[in-house]
Sequence to fold (271 residues):
Amino acid sequence: MSALGTPPRVLTVAGSDSGGGAGIQADLKTMLALGVHGMSVVTAVTAQNSQGVQGAWELPVEAVRAQYRSVVDDIGVQAVKTGMLASAELVETVAELLAGTGAPVVVDPVGVSKHGDPLLAASALDSVRTKLLPVATVATPNLDEVAQLTGVRVESEEQLRDAAAAVLAYGPRWALIKGGHLPGAAVDLLTDGREEHWLRAPRYDNRHTHGTGCTLASAIAAQLAKGSPVPEAVAAAKRYVTGAIAAGFALGAGIGPVDHGWDLSRGTAGA
Fold:
Protein backbone atom coordinates (compact mmCIF):
# COMPACT_ATOMS: atom_id res chain seq x y z
CA MET A 1 0.00 0.00 0.00
CA SER A 2 1.30 3.48 -0.86
CA ALA A 3 1.79 6.36 1.56
CA LEU A 4 -1.58 7.70 0.40
CA GLY A 5 -3.29 4.48 1.35
CA THR A 6 -4.07 3.25 -2.17
CA PRO A 7 -3.56 -0.51 -2.50
CA PRO A 8 -2.22 -2.14 -5.66
CA ARG A 9 -4.91 -2.49 -8.33
CA VAL A 10 -5.74 -5.73 -10.12
CA LEU A 11 -8.23 -6.17 -12.95
CA THR A 12 -10.05 -9.41 -13.69
CA VAL A 13 -11.45 -9.94 -17.17
CA ALA A 14 -13.74 -12.92 -16.82
CA GLY A 15 -17.25 -14.33 -16.60
CA SER A 16 -19.69 -14.01 -13.74
CA ASP A 17 -20.54 -17.04 -11.59
CA SER A 18 -23.98 -16.49 -10.08
CA GLY A 19 -23.20 -19.12 -7.41
CA GLY A 20 -20.27 -17.03 -6.16
CA GLY A 21 -17.62 -19.76 -6.14
CA ALA A 22 -15.69 -19.07 -9.33
CA GLY A 23 -15.30 -16.40 -12.02
CA ILE A 24 -15.47 -12.71 -11.25
CA GLN A 25 -16.85 -13.37 -7.79
CA ALA A 26 -13.98 -15.66 -6.79
CA ASP A 27 -11.45 -13.27 -8.29
CA LEU A 28 -12.66 -10.28 -6.30
CA LYS A 29 -12.84 -12.27 -3.06
CA THR A 30 -9.27 -13.45 -3.59
CA MET A 31 -8.04 -9.95 -4.29
CA LEU A 32 -9.68 -8.60 -1.15
CA ALA A 33 -8.17 -11.40 0.94
CA LEU A 34 -4.70 -10.63 -0.43
CA GLY A 35 -4.81 -6.89 0.14
CA VAL A 36 -5.24 -5.51 -3.37
CA HIS A 37 -8.05 -3.50 -4.95
CA GLY A 38 -9.98 -5.70 -7.35
CA MET A 39 -11.72 -4.35 -10.45
CA SER A 40 -13.67 -6.23 -13.09
CA VAL A 41 -14.51 -6.48 -16.76
CA VAL A 42 -17.43 -8.88 -17.15
CA THR A 43 -17.17 -10.89 -20.37
CA ALA A 44 -20.10 -13.25 -19.88
CA VAL A 45 -22.94 -13.97 -17.50
CA THR A 46 -23.64 -17.52 -16.39
CA ALA A 47 -26.55 -19.13 -14.60
CA GLN A 48 -24.48 -21.38 -12.35
CA ASN A 49 -24.75 -23.19 -9.04
CA SER A 50 -23.11 -26.07 -7.18
CA GLN A 51 -24.43 -28.58 -9.70
CA GLY A 52 -23.30 -26.99 -12.95
CA VAL A 53 -23.84 -24.26 -15.53
CA GLN A 54 -27.44 -23.95 -16.68
CA GLY A 55 -26.83 -21.13 -19.15
CA ALA A 56 -24.19 -18.69 -20.42
CA TRP A 57 -24.48 -15.42 -22.33
CA GLU A 58 -21.44 -13.54 -23.59
CA LEU A 59 -21.42 -9.75 -23.59
CA PRO A 60 -20.93 -7.72 -26.77
CA VAL A 61 -17.35 -6.85 -27.66
CA GLU A 62 -18.22 -3.16 -27.33
CA ALA A 63 -19.31 -3.67 -23.72
CA VAL A 64 -16.13 -5.52 -22.83
CA ARG A 65 -13.89 -2.94 -24.49
CA ALA A 66 -15.75 -0.06 -22.81
CA GLN A 67 -15.41 -1.64 -19.34
CA TYR A 68 -11.70 -2.22 -19.87
CA ARG A 69 -10.93 1.26 -21.14
CA SER A 70 -13.05 2.85 -18.40
CA VAL A 71 -11.00 1.17 -15.67
CA VAL A 72 -7.53 1.24 -17.18
CA ASP A 73 -7.63 4.80 -18.54
CA ASP A 74 -8.80 6.33 -15.26
CA ILE A 75 -7.71 4.07 -12.40
CA GLY A 76 -4.83 2.12 -13.91
CA VAL A 77 -3.72 -1.43 -13.10
CA GLN A 78 -0.67 -3.18 -11.69
CA ALA A 79 -1.77 -6.61 -12.97
CA VAL A 80 -4.52 -8.19 -15.05
CA LYS A 81 -6.03 -11.67 -14.82
CA THR A 82 -8.14 -13.24 -17.57
CA GLY A 83 -10.64 -16.08 -17.20
CA MET A 84 -13.70 -17.04 -19.24
CA LEU A 85 -13.58 -15.26 -22.61
CA ALA A 86 -16.16 -17.45 -24.39
CA SER A 87 -15.59 -16.59 -28.08
CA ALA A 88 -12.82 -15.94 -30.59
CA GLU A 89 -13.96 -12.35 -31.00
CA LEU A 90 -13.75 -11.70 -27.26
CA VAL A 91 -10.38 -13.46 -26.98
CA GLU A 92 -8.91 -11.33 -29.75
CA THR A 93 -10.37 -8.11 -28.38
CA VAL A 94 -9.03 -8.76 -24.89
CA ALA A 95 -5.61 -9.79 -26.22
CA GLU A 96 -5.39 -6.52 -28.15
CA LEU A 97 -6.31 -4.52 -25.04
CA LEU A 98 -3.78 -6.38 -22.90
CA ALA A 99 -0.98 -5.83 -25.39
CA GLY A 100 -1.34 -2.08 -24.95
CA THR A 101 -1.58 -2.01 -21.17
CA GLY A 102 1.96 -2.71 -19.99
CA ALA A 103 1.05 -4.62 -16.82
CA PRO A 104 1.74 -8.27 -15.94
CA VAL A 105 -0.96 -10.59 -17.29
CA VAL A 106 -2.05 -13.91 -15.81
CA VAL A 107 -3.99 -15.97 -18.35
CA ASP A 108 -6.22 -18.73 -17.01
CA PRO A 109 -7.28 -20.34 -20.32
CA VAL A 110 -10.69 -21.46 -19.09
CA GLY A 111 -12.18 -24.13 -21.33
CA VAL A 112 -14.67 -26.02 -19.18
CA SER A 113 -16.23 -25.57 -15.76
CA LYS A 114 -15.53 -27.77 -12.73
CA HIS A 115 -18.66 -29.71 -13.72
CA GLY A 116 -17.52 -30.26 -17.32
CA ASP A 117 -19.66 -27.54 -18.93
CA PRO A 118 -18.02 -25.83 -21.94
CA LEU A 119 -17.07 -22.18 -21.34
CA LEU A 120 -15.02 -21.54 -24.49
CA ALA A 121 -16.16 -22.07 -28.08
CA ALA A 122 -14.05 -24.59 -29.98
CA SER A 123 -13.61 -21.94 -32.67
CA ALA A 124 -11.80 -19.74 -30.12
CA LEU A 125 -8.96 -22.15 -29.36
CA ASP A 126 -6.73 -20.89 -32.15
CA SER A 127 -7.22 -17.30 -30.97
CA VAL A 128 -6.16 -18.33 -27.48
CA ARG A 129 -3.04 -19.96 -28.90
CA THR A 130 -2.01 -17.19 -31.29
CA LYS A 131 -3.36 -14.00 -29.67
CA LEU A 132 -3.86 -14.46 -25.93
CA LEU A 133 -1.01 -16.73 -24.79
CA PRO A 134 1.66 -14.53 -26.45
CA VAL A 135 0.71 -11.59 -24.18
CA ALA A 136 0.70 -13.66 -20.98
CA THR A 137 3.26 -13.18 -18.26
CA VAL A 138 2.03 -16.43 -16.71
CA ALA A 139 -0.34 -18.97 -18.28
CA THR A 140 -2.05 -21.33 -15.82
CA PRO A 141 -3.69 -24.25 -17.67
CA ASN A 142 -4.86 -27.40 -15.95
CA LEU A 143 -4.24 -30.74 -17.64
CA ASP A 144 -7.54 -30.74 -19.54
CA GLU A 145 -6.78 -27.26 -20.88
CA VAL A 146 -3.25 -28.33 -21.85
CA ALA A 147 -4.73 -31.19 -23.88
CA GLN A 148 -7.33 -28.90 -25.42
CA LEU A 149 -4.76 -26.29 -26.46
CA THR A 150 -1.73 -28.41 -27.36
CA GLY A 151 -2.84 -32.02 -27.77
CA VAL A 152 -0.38 -33.10 -25.07
CA ARG A 153 -1.97 -35.49 -22.57
CA VAL A 154 -0.32 -35.80 -19.19
CA GLU A 155 -0.63 -38.97 -17.16
CA SER A 156 2.46 -38.70 -14.94
CA GLU A 157 4.44 -36.04 -13.13
CA GLU A 158 7.35 -36.39 -15.55
CA GLN A 159 5.10 -35.43 -18.46
CA LEU A 160 4.43 -32.01 -16.93
CA ARG A 161 7.65 -30.88 -18.62
CA ASP A 162 6.27 -31.86 -22.03
CA ALA A 163 3.08 -29.96 -21.29
CA ALA A 164 5.00 -26.86 -20.23
CA ALA A 165 7.14 -26.92 -23.36
CA ALA A 166 4.06 -27.19 -25.54
CA VAL A 167 2.38 -24.24 -23.81
CA LEU A 168 5.54 -22.10 -23.83
CA ALA A 169 5.79 -22.62 -27.58
CA TYR A 170 2.80 -20.29 -27.94
CA GLY A 171 4.65 -17.40 -26.32
CA PRO A 172 3.83 -16.86 -22.62
CA ARG A 173 6.85 -15.88 -20.52
CA TRP A 174 6.03 -18.51 -17.89
CA ALA A 175 3.82 -21.59 -17.85
CA LEU A 176 2.31 -22.97 -14.67
CA ILE A 177 1.08 -26.48 -15.44
CA LYS A 178 -1.38 -27.51 -12.75
CA GLY A 179 -1.12 -31.21 -11.97
CA GLY A 180 -4.07 -31.37 -9.62
CA HIS A 181 -5.74 -34.08 -11.71
CA LEU A 182 -2.82 -36.46 -11.19
CA PRO A 183 -2.87 -38.97 -8.31
CA GLY A 184 -0.88 -38.31 -5.16
CA ALA A 185 0.22 -34.93 -3.82
CA ALA A 186 -0.94 -31.81 -5.64
CA VAL A 187 2.08 -30.92 -7.78
CA ASP A 188 2.43 -28.04 -10.23
CA LEU A 189 5.33 -27.11 -12.49
CA LEU A 190 6.27 -23.48 -13.09
CA THR A 191 8.87 -22.86 -15.78
CA ASP A 192 10.02 -20.29 -18.30
CA GLY A 193 11.85 -22.95 -20.30
CA ARG A 194 15.11 -22.39 -18.44
CA GLU A 195 14.44 -22.61 -14.71
CA GLU A 196 11.95 -24.96 -13.07
CA HIS A 197 9.99 -24.60 -9.85
CA TRP A 198 8.12 -27.66 -8.58
CA LEU A 199 5.33 -26.72 -6.22
CA ARG A 200 3.92 -29.42 -3.98
CA ALA A 201 1.08 -29.43 -1.49
CA PRO A 202 -0.85 -32.11 0.37
CA ARG A 203 -4.03 -33.37 -1.24
CA TYR A 204 -7.00 -32.84 1.06
CA ASP A 205 -9.95 -35.19 1.26
CA ASN A 206 -12.35 -32.42 0.26
CA ARG A 207 -14.61 -32.47 -2.78
CA HIS A 208 -15.55 -28.79 -2.41
CA THR A 209 -13.03 -27.30 -4.83
CA HIS A 210 -15.16 -25.10 -7.09
CA GLY A 211 -13.18 -22.03 -8.15
CA THR A 212 -9.65 -23.30 -7.57
CA GLY A 213 -8.34 -22.26 -11.00
CA CYS A 214 -9.84 -18.77 -10.85
CA THR A 215 -8.61 -18.34 -7.30
CA LEU A 216 -5.05 -19.41 -8.05
CA ALA A 217 -4.73 -17.16 -11.12
CA SER A 218 -6.16 -14.19 -9.22
CA ALA A 219 -3.82 -14.81 -6.31
CA ILE A 220 -0.84 -14.83 -8.68
CA ALA A 221 -2.01 -11.54 -10.20
CA ALA A 222 -2.40 -10.03 -6.73
CA GLN A 223 1.14 -10.98 -5.77
CA LEU A 224 2.54 -9.66 -9.06
CA ALA A 225 0.71 -6.36 -8.47
CA LYS A 226 2.44 -6.13 -5.09
CA GLY A 227 5.80 -6.41 -6.82
CA SER A 228 6.74 -10.07 -6.32
CA PRO A 229 8.78 -11.81 -9.03
CA VAL A 230 6.91 -14.58 -10.82
CA PRO A 231 8.34 -17.57 -8.87
CA GLU A 232 7.63 -15.94 -5.50
CA ALA A 233 4.18 -14.78 -6.64
CA VAL A 234 3.22 -18.28 -7.74
CA ALA A 235 4.56 -19.91 -4.58
CA ALA A 236 2.58 -17.50 -2.38
CA ALA A 237 -0.54 -18.03 -4.48
CA LYS A 238 -0.14 -21.81 -4.20
CA ARG A 239 0.00 -21.52 -0.39
CA TYR A 240 -3.11 -19.37 -0.36
CA VAL A 241 -5.18 -21.65 -2.61
CA THR A 242 -4.05 -24.75 -0.71
CA GLY A 243 -5.47 -23.24 2.47
CA ALA A 244 -8.65 -22.25 0.64
CA ILE A 245 -9.11 -25.82 -0.63
CA ALA A 246 -8.56 -27.25 2.85
CA ALA A 247 -11.30 -24.93 4.15
CA GLY A 248 -13.72 -25.57 1.26
CA PHE A 249 -17.29 -26.00 2.36
CA ALA A 250 -20.55 -27.60 1.24
CA LEU A 251 -22.95 -25.35 -0.61
CA GLY A 252 -26.09 -26.51 -2.39
CA ALA A 253 -26.46 -30.09 -3.54
CA GLY A 254 -23.24 -30.37 -5.59
CA ILE A 255 -19.62 -29.22 -5.42
CA GLY A 256 -19.06 -26.41 -2.93
CA PRO A 257 -16.50 -23.60 -3.24
CA VAL A 258 -13.09 -23.08 -1.72
CA ASP A 259 -13.05 -20.64 1.19
CA HIS A 260 -11.48 -17.42 -0.04
CA GLY A 261 -11.49 -15.88 3.43
CA TRP A 262 -9.88 -18.84 5.21
CA ASP A 263 -6.93 -16.84 6.55
CA LEU A 264 -8.44 -13.40 7.04
CA SER A 265 -8.88 -13.87 10.77
CA ARG A 266 -5.12 -14.17 11.15
CA GLY A 267 -4.37 -11.35 8.72
CA THR A 268 -1.67 -13.34 6.94
CA ALA A 269 -3.41 -14.54 3.77
CA GLY A 270 -0.93 -15.34 1.03
CA ALA A 271 2.07 -14.27 3.09
Q: What stands out?
A: The chain has eight helices and nine strands.
